[in-house]
Design goal:
This protein has helices spanning 46-63, 68-84, 86-97, 101-119, 121-124, 159-170, 185-196, 211-219, 232-244, 267-279, 299-310, 324-339, 375-378, 394-403, 417-426, 464-469, 484-488, and strands at 14-15, 18-19, 26-30, 37-42, 129-133, 136-144, 147-151, 174-178, 204-206, 225-229, 248-252, 257-261, 289-295, 343-346, 365-368, 385-391, 409-413, 431-434, 454-455, 470-478. It has 489 residues and is α/β, with parallel strands linked by helices. The strands form five sheets. A seven-stranded mixed sheet has the order 14-15-16-13-12-17-18, sandwiched between helices. It is globular and about 85 Å long. Bound molecules: nicotinamide-adenine-dinucleotide.
């Protein structure tokens, strides 16, 4: 990892294009890489949200009148600024989240791709028009909904906010972002760079805080739509509260992603993909491989997975998990699984990184002989841990996957197209891969899971998000086909 010096911004609320000085409750922001305090973040109260909503409502009067072609010019410039500031943003994401530089840089690159999609919206937003009867035309227009909110988790401080910002704003809305209080710093730079790209003040605002501000967002009568990304527990609370208050809501939750590995899978490709999926971003990806169902004679692949996983070393090419509490939770899951009869093939507990003893590291961990009833097989561990279950039957493997309450991703590893199709048709997940460890759809395909991994209709990115960020106006116009004769004759 690079040793480039980083200037850490103070996390402040950002309203009407101005950063507010810290006032009221706050908490320290720590770098999980070494546990050091690098900044602080305000834990705002409802009165700050009220101010941000008024600023956004006022900005909306102007911004919503810009044409979409004018609005996306901001995102062409913003994308260029991301490219220009890539190294600095990468270092910031790594410092506040704990991921490695290549993983942090991937977030910036994905952010750029999300901007590219927003910039293409004028080309794909084809409203319809048709003469439905003689002299009568119907047309549809996608109209912005007003002031919207976006609530983000800790695991992608840069990318997840950009799942929502470019599309929601390009489509004419004004936004209040509530970053995770654990990683509020990347959002500060997003605000500065949006301003530099020419975004009018008040169109984008940040209100920092914890549970109190999330509840205030769900209750606020001036906010029309709430998008949320985080754990299933909180996704349910947010979805229920926001829709109870008659808001549009899309809430993405947690995950328990299953891999089904067949004996004919290419061992090298499968092992490299599976190890990278379970340990990448320290397992803190909602798309991470977490449970593997090995069908039949797969010992050679499992052996290879362990060999690949051994190459992933804390502090070298493996970052930290987010907090000491997260480290303890992950290690508790491993200990409980071992006590319940699982066999530990690779043990990442008690990892320490020289010179970063205050950091929160867990090494890659592979457990064999896990049974479907164990907590580690059912619950989201959110660490670099792979729980392997064994079966001799493809249908039983599918049944194990189907039993999961979640449904974000599932992947199958095989060289048989027929078996791959059989399995992907039957797994219950919104994003499915064949010989792909992290089956994230790239733009313009949309991102979103099923079951308890998503509440609400539609996906959060891509074309599907257009429906969430707009409302459809249907205009019927009646013309008198003879009328022109009156004045032209
Ligand atoms: P989290 O649910 O703890 O926090 C998410 C947001 O909710 C934060 O901004 C936080 O301040 C707020 N929050 C926390 N507790 C709250 C409460 N009781 N009431 C109201 N608001 C509350 O999630 P996290 O730990 O930051 O992120 C990790 C989780 O996010 C994992 O479960 C992961 O799978 C999930 N995730 C899902 C996706 C997806 O696309 N489905 C993407 C990224 C992360």
């Amino acid at each position: 990892m690079s040793t480039m010096p980083i200037v850490y911004p103070l996390a402040r609320n950002y309203i009407r294009g101005v950063f507010r000085e810290l006032a009221g409750r706050s908490m320290a922001v720590q770098s999980p890489l070494d546990g050091s305090a690098i900044s602080s973040v305000p834990l705002s109260g409802r009165e700050v949200l009220d101010e941000a909503v008024v600023a956004a409502q006022e900005a909306y009067l102007g911004w919503s009148k810009w044409t979409i072609k004018e609005r996306v010019q901001v995102f062409f410039r913003f994308r260029a600024l991301l490219e220009q500031h890539k190294a600095e943003l990468t270092a910031l994401v790594s410092a506040e989240n704990g991921k490695t530089f290549p993983e942090a840089e991937a977030e910036i690159l994905k952010g750029m791709e999300l901007c590219e999609f927003a910039c293409s919206l004028p080309q794909i937003l084809n409203d319809e028009i048709q003469e439905v009867s003689k002299g009568v035309e119907c047309r549809t227009s996608h109209v912005p909904i007003g002031v919207v909110a976006s609530i983000a988790p800790f695991n992608f401080p840069f990318m997840v906010p950009l799942w929502t910002i470019p599309n929601a704003l390009a489509l004419g809305n004004c936004m209040i972002l509530k970053p995770s209080e654990l990683v509020p710093l990347s959002a500060q730079r997003i605000a500065e760079l949006l301003k530099e790209a020419g975004l009018p003040d008040g169109v984008f605002n940040i209100v920092n805080g914890d549970r109190e501000i999330v509840e205030a967002i769900c209750d606020h009568p001036g906010i029309e739509a709430v998008s949320f990304v985080g754990s299933t527990k909180v996704a349910k609370i947010v979805y229920q509260r926001a829709t109870h208050n008659l808001k549009r809501c899309l809430a993405l939750g947690g995950a328990k992603n299953h891999l089904i590995v067949l004996p004919d899978a290419n061992p090298d490709i499968s092992a490299a993909n599976i190890a990278a999926s379970m340990a990448g971003c320290a397992g803190q990806r909602c798309m991470a491989a977490s449970a593997m169902v090995a069908v039949g004679k797969t010992d050679h692949i499992i052996h290879q997975i362990c060999e690949e996983a051994k190459k992933i070393v804390p502090g070298k090419n493996l970052g930290s998990v987010i907090t000491q509490a997260a480290k303890e939770r992950i290690e508790r899951y491993i200990a409980e699984a071992e006590a319940a009869g699982a066999r530990i093939l690779l043990d990442g507990r008690n990892a320490l990184v020289a010179g970063k003893e205050g950091g929160y590291y867990v090494g890659p961990t592979v457990l064999d002989n896990v049974t479907p009833d164990m907590a580690i097989a059912k619950e989201e561990v959110f660490g670099p841990v792979l729980a392997i279950m064994r079966t001799d039957s493809i249908d039983q493997a599918i049944e194990i996957e189907n039993r999961s309450e979640y449904g974000n991703a599932a992947s199958v590893f095989t060289q048989s197209g027929g078996l791959a199709n059989y399995i992907i048709e039957r797994v219950s997940a919104g994003m499915v891969g064949v010989n792909v460890g992290v089956p994230v759809p790239r733009e313009p395909f949309s991102f979103g899971g099923w079951n308890e991994s998503r509440f609400g209709v539609g996906d959060i990115t891509g074309k599907s998000s257009i429906h969430f960020w707009t409302k459809l106006k249907k205009t019927t116009t009646k013309w008198d086909p003879e009328a022109w004769k009156d004045w032209a004759s």
